[in-house]
């Protein structure tokens, strides 16, 4: 294949898959950062929870399709692309939690709109009711309330908005109409927060996709080294994304001779993915894998399997604006969540024809995943 054609195909593949999640349907659609800024910390943690495990599982996928040879020195060069996908269940697309939330002016107005028509505030006219409502709004906005929070997670539907359930309360305010103190009881209510999932209504997101170029070089005393790198690229809904990963596989057979009927290696992989200044995802995996080549150097099948211990986390940072009686105040929110995957079992098959190698595997874990690789081997 012409090298320029290969590079073009590779770049197109990476961009296509990386932007496959949450394609925007219009310029007015909110991206991930804008949506997150509408949520308090407790709501945001539940909202992003599925992609913490999703990205972590993706990052730890697709690193190997064979164990290195048990040779002291050899020239092995592979370059190509890996496509990963972590599968979601319906339960991952919605959340329901309790937390602390601060209502802004518009949300407080929705909670107190009943004052405009409630007979309990007779004989006040419309302007007097408006004045009393503004006093109650000031008593509510910017204050901490324990609420129920439910709705779509980040992978859910845009039509399913996040909602806060206010349990009701009694507020002591100075009635601007009389100048006297009075108690106003605000009933329970549900308020939409404007945030929703990033998937278009009617679309189904069965998996979180990710793709990366991958380069593997070896063999040096039974070891080969693998690199992934994506410079800053624009990804729909997530802004500027960059990614770097590194891994090593070592076949101890180089020290003991070919005493096993298959190639075995110990492996370690680590990587970091960043999206704008909103989140940073890190993942690490280590374990053992084995493979057996069936055929010849130019035409062969290689079944492979592995067991990995893995971990992942995502650190989120964004600005959340609190609406208070003295004006809007910026609050920087920062929190870290840990992925649920702890171990994985991998099974796959690799096919090589001349210099082209195609492999596919499936990974069993808390969040199952799959990966496909297209490599050119020299």
Structure description:
The structure is a single chain. By secondary structure, this protein is α+β, with helices and mostly antiparallel strands. It folds into two domains: about 5-90 and about 205-375, no CATH class; about 95-195, no CATH class. The chain contains six helices and 18 strands. It has helices spanning about 5-20, 30-35, 40-60, 105-110, 125-140, 255; strands at about 75-85, 95-100, 145-150, 160-165, 170-175, 180-185, 190-195, 205-220, 225-235, 240-250, 265-275, 280-290, 295, 300-325, 325-340, 345-355, 355-365, 370-375. The protein has a ten-stranded antiparallel beta barrel. A four-stranded antiparallel sheet has the order 2-3-4-7. A two-stranded antiparallel ribbon has the order 5-6. Helix 4 crosses helix 5. The longest helix has 19 residues, at about 40-60. The radius of gyration is 27 Å and the shape is rod-shaped.
**Strand segment count:** 18
SS element count, helices? 6
Derived from helix and strand composition plus strand pairing, the structural class reads: alpha+beta
List SSEs in N-to-C order: HHHEEHHEEEEEEEEHEEEEEEEE
- Low-confidence region ranges: 1-28
What integer value in Å does the Rg equal? 27 Å
**Can you give the helix content as a percent range?**
10-25%
Mean pLDDT across residues: 87
Give the tally of structural domains: 2
How far the N terminus sits from the C terminus, by CA atoms, comes to 13 Å
Shape: rod-shaped
- Strand arrangement in the largest pleated sheet: 1-8-9-10-11-12-14-16-17-18
- Biggest pleated-sheet summary: 10 strands, antiparallel, barrel
Report strand %. over 45%
């Amino acid at each position: 294949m012409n090298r320029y054609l290969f590079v073009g195909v590779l770049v197109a593949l990476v961009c296509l898959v990386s932007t496959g999640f949450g394609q925007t349907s219009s310029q007015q659609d909110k991206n991930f950062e804008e949506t997150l800024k509408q949520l308090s910390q407790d709501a945001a943690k539940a909202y992003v929870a599925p992609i913490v495990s999703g990205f972590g599982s993706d990052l730890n996928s697709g690193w190997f399709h064979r164990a290195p040879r048990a040779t002291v020195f050899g020239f092995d060069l592979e370059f190509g692309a890996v496509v990963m996908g972590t599968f979601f269940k319906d339960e991952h697309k919605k959340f329901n939690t309790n937390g602390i939330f601060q209502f802004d002016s518009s949300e407080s107005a929705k909670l107190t709109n009943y004052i405009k028509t409630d007979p309990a505030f007779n004989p006040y006219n419309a302007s007097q009711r408006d004045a009393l409502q503004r006093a109650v709004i000031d008593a509510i906005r910017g204050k901490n309330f324990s609420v129920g929070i439910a709705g779509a997670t980040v992978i859910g539907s845009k039509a399913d908005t996040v909602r806060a359930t206010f349990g009701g309360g009694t507020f002591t305010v100075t009635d601007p109409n009389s100048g006297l103190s009075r108690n106003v009881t605000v009933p329970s209510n549900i308020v939409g927060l404007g945030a929703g999932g990033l998937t278009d209504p009617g679309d189904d997101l069965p998996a979180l996709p990710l793709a990366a170029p991958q380069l593997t070089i070896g063999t040096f005393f039974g070891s080969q080294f693998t690199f992934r790198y994506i410079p800053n690229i624009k990804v729909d809904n997530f802004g500027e994304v960059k990614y770097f990963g590194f891994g090593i596989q070592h076949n101890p057979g180089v020290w003991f001779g070919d005493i096993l009927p298959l190639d075995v290696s110990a492996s370690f992989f680590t990587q970091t993915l960043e999206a704008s200044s909103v989140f940073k995802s890190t993942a690490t995996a280590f374990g053992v894998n084995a493979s057996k080549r069936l055929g010849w150097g130019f035409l062969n099948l290689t079944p492979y399997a592995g067991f990995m211990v893995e971990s992942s986390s995502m650190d989120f940072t964004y600005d959340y604006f609190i609406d208070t009686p003295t004006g809007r105040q910026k609050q920087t929110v920062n929190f870290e969540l840990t992925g649920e995957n702890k171990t994985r079992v991998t099974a796959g098959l690799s096919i090589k024809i001349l210099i082209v190698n195609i492999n596919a595997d499936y990974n069993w874990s808390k969040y199952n995943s799959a990966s496909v690789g297209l490599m050119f081997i020299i």
